[in-house]
Request: fold
Amino acid sequence: MRLLTIEDESELAGLIAKAFGAAGFAVDTAGSLAAAEETIAVMSYDAVILDLSLGDGDGLALLRRWRARGASVPILILTARDGLDDRVVGLDAGADDYVLKPFHMPELISRIRALLRRPNAALGLRLELGNLVFETEHRQVTVAGRVLRLSVREMALIELLLRRAGRVVTREAIESSLYGFDAELGSNAVEVLVHRLRRKLQEAEAALQIHTLRGVGYLLADGP
Amino acid sequence: MTAELPEAARPWSLQARLAWRLAGVTLLAVALAGAAVGWRAIVAVNSLEDAALQTQARAIGRHLSVAPDGAARLDLPPELDAAYRYSHGDDLYVVLDAGGRVVAASSAEALSRLAPFLPAQPGLFSTGPDRQLYGLMTTDGAFRIVVAQGARHRDVLVDSLMQEFLVAGLWLLALIGVTAVVVGAVTLRRGLRPLSAASRAAAAIGPERPGDRVPLAGLPNELRPLVQAINGALDRLARALDVQRRFTADAAHELRTPLAVLTARLDLLSGEGIDAMRGDLDRMNRLVEQLLKIAQLEGLPLDVTQSVDLHAVAVEAISLLAPLAIRQRIELVLAEGAGSVIVRGNRPALVAALVNLVENAMAQSPPGAAVEVEIGADGTIRVLDRGPGVAEPERADIFRRFRRGRGSRAAGAGLGLAIVSEIAAAHRGSVAVGGRPGGGAVFALHLGTARPA
Reply:
């Protein structure tokens, strides 16, 4: 996994490179918009960390330019800028995530990993959480090395939750992703599905849990 | 707040004022013209009558003769005599000799009417209790000749002249007056029409559209300076706002960047005391965040005109806090309720407010407890916890800055609830805390802007 960090605070850029390096990423850094343009012209990256306030201009302009050119690389904005609306503006401009400085390194690494799990990222993907592994190419789930048998819907649900692990997936998102817009849904279809998946995970002694946020949705996290 | 406005500040209508004044001027013009015509008529009638009286006096003088015995006598030709006789007392004369004895009179009645008023000097006079007699005294040799007419004569003449003026002139003047008022009002209305367009444009200018200006197009020259001055004031305000915005952004950047370096550095270390330092730094980071947010809310106007779904606000706030809640083993619940509740407001600010309320509730909740969020159809957001609650005397106080009213478990700097209060105020709303049956606290954020968006 190759990562580009566009950050004009060289100290912070160095610390990010060190941390991501330790987490198994190859990291390049660019200290300005110009350097970033040069780098991206010759290299292809799996994800980009973009600071907004750069010495030679606004990171948002770069983001808009890339998106206009059709670049689909996942981009995470890492910024000290936080007007209440800045987050919205950043996401509207085509960013995939928005992290405000100061931040904790493990949090940043997990957010980048989450971006790489997105469906528009690499296709043949191995999603891992706790002792569970999901091979997207072979549609196979294993817990601690043992294959877990799941229905098509259960498989789709665990994939959805895995791709957004650590974050809330709303019930509406699950309904529209699993059943399409037209399907006639029982009011508790999602609850029943989650309940079945939870039981199977429990029986297989999976080291992860589907947390319920009543009225909102579900969150998959590792841990008992 | 309902003090009487001083006279000068009371609103008034240019149109109404112009119409009234034009009407007043027209009435005055009519009155003046009437008076002038009347006066002219009287002068003309007077000079006519003066001439007539002179002629009469001369005629009487011509027929005055003195007999050799010194007795004076008046021999009027019969037609003249008849004219005086049949004038019903409207034309009369008296002739006196040097001794003041009456030589002749048109009638005995004439003598008695004129006698009390006979002037000492020659000239014009008018007499009687109502000046009903108008006369002339001339001297002819030793004789004094007094001729007079009843006022009825003059009145008839003046009346006919006035009537002519009223019929021919007055309605013309009135027509001109009415036309002036109507043309004035229409011109003013037409001329001021661009002003209502300008007013609408001005009303739409706000923090969400600080670049808009009042259009000058179509405005009359008299109004341009005002609109230009308003636009100039808006320019200066926009610049001040921009300076403030940039300062807040710069301050945020300058404060967060070194904290980010420090946090990242600490995250790469491990060893004794590092976790404690990490905790200290987190508190510091949080305090800086909250101070920046307060500065931002205070210094910059919040655009509260967006259409916001409070249900979506609650989903976002709960989603943001879900990982923390799971770590603290606190259940977050969004109460099944009204579904979408659309209000006017600022979504990021409302999310921030609700995050603060839920964080506060989580800090007060024991592990295993639930924190509930309820959205009322009236646009009220409620956060309910099962913590120790807030004692009655502290309830008003906890929304003030740096007050940590709710025990010592709260790790925050005591700014979270002040931020909520600030955001509520920006939405012309309020936040309050109450007790919850069965223990705990209920925080209610009511939005003044909660009307169908």
